[in-house]
Each structure stands twice: as C-alpha cells, then as structure tokens.
Amino acid sequence: MTAYKRYVLTILHTTNWYDEELKPGSKSWKSLEYVRRIHAASGKQANKQNSKMLVSQKDVAITQFGFVGFVALSYQMLGIRYDEAGMEGFVHFWRTIGYMLGLEDRFNICTEDLTSSKQRMTLVLEQILRPALQTVSTEFVQMTNAMIDGLWCVNTFLDYNAFMFLTRRLAGVPGHYYWKDEPTNDGSTQPAYEKMGWHSRYILCMVLYINEMLLQKLSTQPGG
C-alpha cells in the first residue's frame, strides 16, 4: 500500500503540472512547492539515519532524466510523434520543473536549447543509467519490484520482467532488442526476452505492438 500511495501520488502530481498553468497560486505551483518540501524533508530524515545519505543535485538530475530523457532520445520506441518545436517546448517545460525543484542550471539536463539538452541526457544515459541497468543491486530489484507491484492495480500491463526489458531496451543495454532488424548492441544472437516466462513475453509483445505499430501508424496519419 505504501508503494501504491507513493507512486500514484507521483503520477497525480506530474499530471497536475501538465494540466494546470504554472503560475503563483495555481494547483501546479502549489503541487511543486509541496513536492520540493517533501524532498527536503525526506533528505533530512535520511541524513539523520546516515550522514552520507543526501539528496544531491546529481540525484535530482538523474530523476529528471526519468521524466524527459527517454522521451527526447528514444521517442520512436514510445510511439511519440516527433515535432521539433513540440520537443523543444517539452524540454523547456522540464527545465522549468527542475529549476522549481531546486536544480541548479549547471546540473539541469534540460538546457536553453534542444541540442545541448540531448547531449546532457546522452551523458547521463551512457555514463550512469546504462551501466547501472547492466549490473543491478539487491536493493534495486526490491525497489523496482515494489514500484511495479504497487501500481499493478492501476495498470495490469505492468509486469516486472517486461518492464525491465523495456527500460533496458530504451537504455541500449546489450542483448535487449526485439525486432529482427534491431541492433543487438553486443553481437548476441539470443535476445534477453527469450529467457522470460510466457506471461512476461506476452505483455512485452503487446506493449511493443501498441507503441511501435499502432501509435506510430496513428502519428503518421493526417491530424494524428
């Protein structure tokens, strides 16, 4: 229940930022103020238990990537219709969110222009996220399981193995490819999904079909 409440609240707050105009006194403004207070309180509480546990600028920047990085770098895999002006606006939006949550400009992966923003995102992906996804800790597995299990009642398509495969595929982790003409990243001939159970493989297939077939087809149609 704790994981469910935590991540559903995250979804609700994020949706609020998109739906409400960001100005003083608005719901989105109050939401961001609340999230920043919670982050500060959580950081202080963790620091009391362990002086080395601090929510650093690096931590916030990596978290920011989770909301904007894959959208900007791998939009094709997510079924997103690409429009440069729209992407620039999206990145600017998350630059503003990062700033309001206390992220300094020098650490903000969303910069004043799309090109340098993608460069920063690529650095985070290649130097931090991809290596971390290749060799995971016990704590990582416990945390991601709690997140996915906690949200399963909201979206029954959430499956741990399928979700992790999709994430690693987005990150370019070797062996995590699906289509025959897709780069393997390591020259392997057996994709990682073949080691998964049939239920996980079914969920994976459905998500990929929706994202890369149905949504892509819709995005290419007039008015899509």
UniProtKB/TrEMBL annotation:
Protein name per its UniProtKB record: (northern house mosquito) hypothetical protein
InterPro entries named in the record: MPAB/Lcp_cat_dom
Domain ER-bound oxygenase mpaB/mpaB'/Rubber oxygenase catalytic: 21-133
Cross-referenced Pfam families: MPAB_Lcp_cat
GO MF entries: oxidoreductase activity
Domain of life: Eukaryota
